[in-house]
Amino acid sequence: MILSASRRTDIPAFYSEWFFNRLKAGMLRARNPYNYHQVYQIDLYPDDIDCIVFWTKNAEPMLSKLNLLQDYSYYFQYTITPYPKAYEPNLDDLPHRIETFIKLSEKIGSDHIIWRYDPIFISDNIDLNFHLLMFEKLAQSLANHTFRCIISFIDLYNSTKRNIRDLHIAAMDDRIKRSIAKELAPIAKHYNLEMQTCAERIDLEDLGISHGRCIDDKLISRFTNKTFHAVKDPHQRAECGCIKSFDIGVYNTCLTGCKYCYATRNHQTALKNRAQHDPLSPFLIGNTAVGDQVRIKNKKNQTYISF
Predict the structure, then answer these.
(1) Contacts of 172 (CB under 8 A, 6+ apart)
(2) 244-301 pLDDT, tens digit each
(3) 272 in helix, strand or coil?
(4) What is the number of structural domains in the chain?
(5) pLDDT computed for residue 248 by the predictor
(6) Using CA atoms, how far apart are residues 210 and 285, in angstroms rounded to an integer?
(7) How far apart are CA 185 and CA 196, in angstroms?
(8) 45 backbone dihedrals φ, ψ, rounded to 5°
(9) What would you measure as the largest C-alpha separation in the chain, in angstroms?
């Protein structure tokens, strides 16, 4: 099994204590986000987990505990974007985030950390020149500490539109996407960074930018010496190339507060949910409830328990 930790929230930044407690306990429980009482219990022993993919904007809380992952294969999808506080209100200053990225890379190896420059958008004070200047600055800082850069362009979901209505972020058509990608690609090439897109329909292969898989079977095979059949994750968007994994996060629990985020409705909701977090619970948020139907998933069996 491949764990995604997590597309839905920043576990390394805000819930790493819980995560390491669950590794020690050898299991966690996660609710189906669309069916509250449908619960999956996941065994977390090294023999049960093929790879863990961490998604984060701040791995600093994990830096001193990476030895607890020594029996696991894992890598990081690590987002660093240069937007002003109006867009990313609760992130550390950019130099500190770059420093943390570099520290992580030095501990785990540059082949185990992927830089994400996403989402890309245009607004009243974010234009193409801003992206060219900041992308080059970041690429220069990070190039020796990663091997790949993943980009994507903003998706304006209904919740996203509400959160950005005062920021004047524009919708992006393929013409705009291509014009930006055409300028970023040579920068990435100059710094020997492989460039991929995440869940984008647009074809940019002629620019040297391939369709990526954030949960990447080839990368995981390299780390584990196992062969993974590239079965697309059926729970992701049609444009997503990721192979199947199990996401252990919970929507509306990330405290970073990025206005463009699709996974958190608003910061107040995230704070309310965070108040239900217990680092000793098998659940990221809350605990066992009456009516829960627990499906135990491991390599030996699959059984059900009712509460």
Answers:
(1) 120, 121, 122, 153, 154
(2) 999 999 999 999 999 999 999 999 999 999 999 999 999 999 999 999 999 998 665 5
(3) helix
(4) 1
(5) 98
(6) 37
(7) 10
(8) -70, 150
(9) 57
